[in-house]
Amino acid sequence: MRTLVLLALVGLGAQLVDGALGMAYGVTSATLLLAIGTNPAAASATVHLAEIGTTLASGVSHWRFGNVDWKVVVRVGVPGAVGAFAGATVLSRLSTDAAKPVMSLILLGLGLYLLGRFTFRGLRTDRLGQPLRKRFLGPLGLVAGFVDATGGGGWGPVGTPALLASGRLEPRKVIGSIDTSEFLVSLAASLGFLLSLGSQGIDFVWVLALLLGGVVAAPLAAWLVRHVPPRVLGSAVGGVIVLTNTRTLLRSDWLGQADTPTESLVLGAIAIVWAAAVTWSVRAYRAEQAALPAVGVDRSHADEAPASARGEAEPVGAGVGTADAAVLDRSPVAGSHS
Predict the structure, then answer these.
(1) How far apart are CA 249 and CA 283, in angstroms?
(2) Are 44 and 151 in contact (CB under 8 A)?
(3) pLDDT exceeding 90 applies to what percent of the chain?
(4) Residue 22 falls inside a structural domain
C-alpha cells in the first residue's frame, strides 16, 4: 500500500511538472521504477500505459485553456507514434544505454541555448505566427517518439526545446501541443510493448496508481502554464533540461560520477545558476510589464495571435510591436490634438 501511495504521489508530481513545462513525466516515473529494480522494458511499458490516461487528461485540459495548436499536434504526433512503436519493439530486444549520453549531450546543448536565450533576451517574437514546416515536425516527431519509447521518457525533453528554439510558437502552445500529441505516442508505444512483451513484468496496479496521480494534476498544470509568463517559463524549461541531462552525463559510463561529491557539487551549482536565471527572468518580465501602457488587460501573453487571426476586428494600431507602439504614441501625428 505504501508503494502505491508513493507511486500516486510521483504520478501527481511528475504530471504537474510535465503539464507545466512540457516534460519530465516519463523520465521521473521511469527513474523511480528502475530504482526499485524493474527491468527497462517493463518500466517503460508501465509508464507508457499510465501515460495513455494522463496525456488524454492533460490534452483535454490544455485544449480547454487554449494551449493547443492542432496542426502541430497532428504533424508531430503521427510521426511520433511511428517512432514510439519502433522504439518499443527495439527496446524489447536490446538496451540503448550506450546512446543515452549522446542524446543527453545534444539535449544539454539545447537546454543551455534556451536558458541563455530566455533569461537574457526573452521570447523570440520575430518568428511568432510563422508556420512550422512538416519537414521539421515530421523528423522531430519520429526521433522524439523513438527516444521516448526506448528511454522510458524523452518526448518532452526532445520535442519541447526544439519547438521553443524555433521561435515560431509561443511557449504555452508548445507545451500544450507537445503534451496533447504525447497521447498518440503513448498509445503506440504501449501497443508495441504489449505485442513484443505481452504483460510480462507489467504491474497494472502500479499503472493505475501512476495514472490516478497524473489525472489529478493535469488540470492544474494546464492552468499554470497559461498564467506563467513566457519568458519565465522558457528559463524554467531550460533549467530543467540542463539539470536533467547533466545528471545523466555524470552518471554515464563516460564520466562515472554517480553518487559522488563531484556529482553533488556540479548539480548544486547548476541549481543555483538556474534559480538565479529564473529570478532574473521574473524581474525582467516585471520591468517589461511596467514599461507597457496601462490598458487594463493582462499582457503576460502579449505575443498571442492577433485578433484578425481569431476572426475578430483588430483595433487601430494592432499588429505593431510594443516598441513600435511606444514610438507611435510619441510621434507628432499620434500626439497631435489639432
Answers:
(1) 32
(2) yes
(3) 23
(4) yes
Closest CA to 306 of 316, 319, 294: 319
Task: Give the C-alpha separation, 238 to 122, whole Å.
Answer: 12
Q: What is the dihedral of CA 216, 221, 227, 228, to 10 degrees?
A: 140
First to last CA, the chain: 78
Instruction: Determine the Cα–Cα distance for residues 176 and 65; give it in Å rounded to an integer.
Output: 9
Residue type, 258: A
| The total number of structural domains that make up the chain | 1
What whole-number distance in Å separates Cα of residue 210 and Cα of residue 227? 26
Residues 231-265: tens digit of each pLDDT: 888 788 788 888 888 988 898 888 989 889 999 99
The total number of residues shown for the chain amounts to 338
Fill in the amino acid letter for 92.
S
* Mean pLDDT within 103-116: 79
Q: Would 28 be classed as within a structural domain? A: yes
Quote the CA–CA distance of 155 and 158 in Å, as a whole number: 6
Note whether residue 146 is domain-resident.
Answer: yes
pLDDT at 272 over 50: yes
Handedness of CA 272, 29, 50, 145 (dihedral sign): positive
Cell of 83: 517512432
